[in-house]
Amino acid sequence: MDGSSKEEEDGTFTNISLADDTDHSSRILYPRRKSLLPKMMNADMDAVDVENQVELEEKTRLINQVLELQHTLEDLSARVDAVKEENLKLKSENQVLGQYIENLMSASSVFQTTDTKSKRK
């Protein structure tokens, strides 16, 4: 036996590697495995980056939509306030006009109430 192999009981030989860390055969395999890992990680990170980018775009879109709806709500609220003020103004004008019409009707003989019972007697 030469030290690099071991004889089994059945007469077959099993190779046992006696190579140390400076062995070129182990160096060739290790860097390949190591180089695949960063590529996979880069691909995963690219997928995560794309996913994060999509998520960020969606968040930005939603924020812009919320802000737009907020501005629309503010505009509608301001419009409601303006309509309320206009409504109060018109009610006041209607009261003034109603009082004016009542005064005109009471001053005019055409609109005076006639007592039909007193004319019959």
- In DSSP terms (H or I, runs of 4 or more residues), the helix count works out at 2
User: Strand order across the biggest sheet?
Assistant: 1-2
Shape summary: rod-shaped
Q: What's the SSE pattern?
A: EEHH
| Total count of strands | 2
The helical percent reads over 70%
Tell me the major beta sheet.
2 strands, antiparallel
Q: Percent of residues in beta strands? A: under 5%
Structural class: mainly alpha
> Runs with pLDDT <50, length 5+?
1-8, 26-34
CA gyration radius, whole angstroms: 49 Å
Q: How far apart, in Å, are the first and last alpha carbons?
A: 156 Å
What is the oligomeric state here? single chain
Mean pLDDT: 75
What does this structure look like?
With 121 residues, this protein is mostly helical. 74% of the residues lie in helices and 5% in strands. The protein is built from two helices and two strands; from the N terminus they run ββαα. It has helices spanning 24-107, 116-120; strands at 5-7, 13-15. A hairpin with a 5-residue loop joins strand 1 and strand 2. The protein is rod-shaped, with a radius of gyration of 49 Å. The N and C termini lie far apart (156 Å). Residues 1-8 and 26-34 have low confidence and may be disordered.
Task: Provide key terms for this protein.
disordered N terminus; 121 residues; single chain; two-stranded antiparallel ribbon; mainly alpha
In brief:
With 121 residues, the protein is mainly α.
Topology of this structure?
Elements: E1 5-7, E2 13-15, H1 24-107, H2 116-120
Antiparallel strand pairs: 1-2
